[in-house]
Amino acid sequence: MAKTALITGILGQDGPYLAKFLLSKGYKVYGMIRRYSNPNFGNLDFLGITDKVEYVDGDMSDESSLYNIVKALRPLEVYNLAAQSFVGRSWDLAKITTEVNALGVLYLLNAIKAYSPMTKFYQASTSEMFGLGNTKGYQDENTTFHPRSPYGISKVYAFWTTVNFRESYGLFTCNGILFNHESPIRGIQFVTRKITDGVAKIKYGLANKLHLGNLDAKRDWGFAGDFVEATHLMLQQKNPDDYVVGTGENHSVREFVELAFKYGGIPNWKKYVVIDPRFKRPAEVPELLAKGDKARKVLGWKPKVSFDELVRMMVEADLKRYKISSKFKIQSSK
Ligand code: NAP
Ligand code: F7E
């Protein structure tokens, strides 16, 4: 089979990083996008690869669109990154979250089974499946799932469906149980990017407050560019399997805030941060910490970017964005 890969969720955060990595390995990359009046290619533009990907129209909630794509392409590898991925909104959008994240995976796997059973399949599983399933202070492949949100629940269904197609039909299907990973193209609604964007706005006088929810929550935050390499490695193994991927270090939202304000050159973050109940969740996942020994041993993967470097990279990127736009405003008002 030719080195072809189909990425669903190509316009999100991970899609562009994975596409860039696969292109560097000589793959022909197809990216699935929803038929939108105005799709946003900003993240692909940021990485400079918009013209290097070939696009196909499809929607995870439309079974026949997935069948048609798989039948036409018969790709060597499928990376299923598409999802309603924002935990915080998943209570209000529980039905669509379930349709896209859970049933969408069933549809896609059925399409592969019917039309391209040699295709290797990657499912973007998540540490949110663990939720409160933390009996030892960390999570690994043996930790019980106890999801705390419609998002987490939908991903548990997708996880087991991926395992079941492997066990029932012998398909090459893998789950990457990835812990939080961030980057300068992280969606603005997620806490890390919301903070770095807020710091940049405050720095340039475009805001004077940053409204946040639970500062005590702890996450194992890594860099998206590192994590997509682990996903590729999973599909290069002799046998399909499931892997936890994380840095093995966690930090609170408060620590992220402190560091981001420091890199933004703004003293006394407490002056700007407002605790706002609107951003607290009906059920929180208080703490996540990966024990990713299997990925390190079997895949030979380890993260390259540290927490400190990640925060600095994101703050610098947002400062640059606002610097350019404030310069543009000054020029255009002349
Ligand atoms: P993201 O930025 O939210 O991107 C998700 C993409 O899915 C978006 O481009 C979106 O398309 C697309 N999508 C949503 N609904 C769709 C539908 N019905 N049909 C087709 N495409 C649809 O997410 P990400 O951070 O890149 O994460 C990638 C995957 O990894 C997701 O499945 C997420 O749940 C999972 N994950 C993420 C993390 C993390 O920390 N980032 C950790 C573990 C697992 P539009 O652009 O059209 O909205
Ligand atoms: O929240 C707390 C919030 O929305 C992180 C997704 O990629 O990673 C992501 O899910 C923590 C939570 O990410 C605000 O309560 C405080 O404890 O950045 P987040 P998430 O929920 O961990 C997992 C692995 C995925 O799979 C998901 O797809 O930060 N927090 N104040 C806040 N969170 C947000 N969003 N906004 C706040 O103002």
Automatic annotation (TrEMBL):
Catalytic activity as recorded in UniProt: GDP-alpha-D-mannose = GDP-4-dehydro-alpha-D-rhamnose + H2O
Protein purpose: Catalyzes the conversion of GDP-D-mannose to GDP-4-dehydro-6-deoxy-D-mannose.
Record-linked PANTHER family: GDP-MANNOSE 4,6 DEHYDRATASE (PTHR43715:SF1), GDP-MANNOSE 4,6-DEHYDRATASE (PTHR43715)
UniProtKB keywords: Lyase, NADP
HAMAP family assigned: GDP_Man_dehydratase
Protein name in UniProt: GDP-mannose 4,6-dehydratase
Entries under SUPFAM superfamilies matching the protein: NAD(P)-binding Rossmann-fold domains (SSF51735)
One GO MF term: NADP+ binding
Domain NAD(P)-binding residue range list: 6-314
UniProt keyword NAD present: no
GO biological process, one term: 'de novo' GDP-L-fucose biosynthetic process
Family the entry assigns: Belongs to the NAD(P)-dependent epimerase/dehydratase family. GDP-mannose 4,6-dehydratase subfamily.
Cofactor(s) recorded in Swiss-Prot or TrEMBL: NADP(+)
Transmembrane segments: none
Any Pfam family hit: GDP_Man_Dehyd
Enzyme Commission (EC) number: 4.2.1.47
